[in-house]
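Recall that a protein's primary structure is simply its ordered list of amino acids. Everything else, from secondary elements to tertiary packing, is in principle encoded there. The following example makes that idea concrete.
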Amino acid sequence: MDLVVIRPLKGRHCSECRRGPLPMHLLESGAPVCLDCADLGHLVYLPRGDAALTRRAREASALWAVVVRLNRRRGRYERQGLLVEEPALARAESACLADADSRARRRARDAARRAAEDSRFTAELTAVIGRLFPGCPKERAARTAAHASVRGSGRVGRTAAGRSLKEGAVTAAVRASVRHLDTDYDALLMAGVPRHQARARVSQEIDAVLASWRRPVDPS
């Protein structure tokens, strides 16, 4: 089990030596303890951001701790970095410098591969939208697919159902597009209307747009 050190939003005082306010502390039996009293004062802080450096420093350090901070908006503690032994960090930095070029080339290859995968998926999603909603303008179908499939967005297109192009997920992506672009939904939210109420107000309007798009375009 990882040692967890807290970066408090508001400094507290050590329950043992009474020093404070503390930039970091552990909790022992619910009471804050400074790093020195917890025998972690010799460790150095490594902020998150460089995955290779973090992994190597953690592997090289006989003693390390995870540093977290409370995100009040999300109501959870989020990882900020690590505390590691200074010699371990130095070795990790040297190792990262030694193979920086090869890691940069690998990142470039991975980025190109992901871009190709995303482009292919967006094209496939656009085609499915066109099949399910033949009356949807082609530019709008492409725009909806591109928006829904942004990597790391958490949108419908990035879910397991969305990636497998299941009809329910694709319809949900189109419905979301209509909600934001063709109704007053966003204005209702800005006016303070609760989300569920706002969705209920525009539901029939969305259904009407989707129904019209399900009908093929008359070529004449």
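The longest strand covers residues 76-85. Helices lie at 51-60, 86-98, 100-132, 138-148, 160-163, 167-181, 185-190, 195-214.
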